[in-house]
Amino acid sequence: MHSTNLLLEEPIRMASILEPSKTSFFPAMTKIVGTLGPKSRSVDTISACLKAGMSVARFDFSWGDAAYHQETLENLKLAIKATKKLCAVMLDTVGPELQVVNKSETPISLEENGTVVLTPHRGQEASSSLLPINFSGLAKAVTPGATIFVGQYLFTGSETTSVWLEVSEVKGDDVVCIIKNTATLAGSLFTLHCSQIHIDLPTLSDEDKDVIRKWGVPNKIDFLSLSYTRHAEDVRQAREFLSKLGDLSQTQIFAKIENVEGLNHFDEILAEADGIILSRGNLGIDLPPEKVVYLN
User: Tell me: the pLDDT tens digits for 137-189?
Assistant: First the structure.
């Protein structure tokens, strides 16, 4: 029996250790990562995922609080017990992700050639003319002509639930934009992506560190997915942070590359990280869609 085999269907007899391994036996070298979300968090669904081959469960902290993800993790434990199939745990950080905040969750209609203002004053209500965002430095990061994307990932030009914006002017902390396509934004949070623009925020935020301490440590996570990794130093800083958390000193770090800045430093990031995740959705905003296929 190979020592790296995750699942033991029956107890090992000590004598069997001395027996030659079967030549036909090959351990699974490929891991299948599955994200556990609203439609894949019940015990039955997770069990089906495990039986289908899922060996790493990803918990995305871009949405949902620690209590929500803990419930899902407890269901994962029950599913593991029921199926006798082991599964590793991956915590995916939020990182320097920019978001539009829609507290009322009222659908927001945006009309092509109209204007909308992006403001860091989150106390204001989102509307078709004003979108509050979670970053106070946007006005300093963009210039007229810059493109901003709001909504779902990988825009192809035909969506009506995502919108392209072009910066028209900057007024103090506010950014005035021209709407490039008609769309309706629905929900409480929308990702905001500034194409090929450096965002001066730490890769591992204070909020991420808090989640790792309070959720990652007690649950002894196996992998950390480091969102928006842009430089090798991002990985080094994350590893230094994990090394101080006892049980997580051996946690592996997967650098998640989501923009051109990360691609430009790919080789140095690869040398420092335990693995690489290419987020083709976000990269499809920074790159022409036809270029994304080369990242497979």
Answer: 999 999 999 999 998 654 555 568 889 999 999 999 999 999 999 999 988 87
Structural domain includes residue 182: yes
Give a yes or no: residue 166 inside a domain.
Answer: yes
Question: Given 164, 194, 224, which residue is the final one in a domain?
Answer: 194
Phi, psi (deg, nearest 5) at residue 3: -70, -20
Domain boundary pick from 159, 194, 229: 194
For residues 286 and 195, is the Cβ–Cβ distance under 8 A? yes
The rounded percent of the chain whose pLDDT value lies above 90 is 62
Is 16 within the bounds of a domain?
A: no
- Same domain flag for 88 and 225: yes
Q: Look at strands 163-171 and 115-119 and give their pairing.
A: unpaired
Contact call for residues 147 and 166 (beta carbons, < 8 A): yes
283 and 210 co-located in one domain: yes
Q: How many Å apart are CA 255 and CA 175, to the nearest integer? A: 31
Beta bridge partners of 98: 192
Domain, as residue range, for 115: 98-194
Residue 238 belongs to domain with CATH number: 3.20.20.60
In a domain, 219, yes or no: yes
Answering whether pTM is above 0.85, one says: no
